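Exercise: predict the fold of this chain.
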Amino acid sequence: QVQLVESGGGLVQAGGSLRLSCAASGRTFSTYAMGWFRQAPGKEREFVAAIKWSGSRTLYADSVKGRFTISRDNAKNTVYLQMNGLKPEDTAVYYCASDRLSQRISLYSAETEYGYWGQGTQVTVSS
């Protein structure tokens, strides 16, 4: 049974930073790309960032490029999302997700390409 558990969310002032973590278990973490998505109140869930299974490539939504950094530690089965320069519009529930197939060449922003999801962690940015 694959499990993804996010942590690190909270309340922060605009301009501040947070680091989210997602601990994975139940499959060979190092062979699957990982992604972060978010869902703001009243909005659809949207792609934030993804990292290749090897860690050699990343992909970002335009809205977070230059402010957020995705990384992974395959020895710890954990993926991270470092969020700097937070804005009120970053307020959302953040979810990590695991690619539905292993060792793919490409990175994907579509939710349908991810097979497992965490329960989410709330990030609130005050102005």
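Check your answer against the key: The mean pLDDT is 97.
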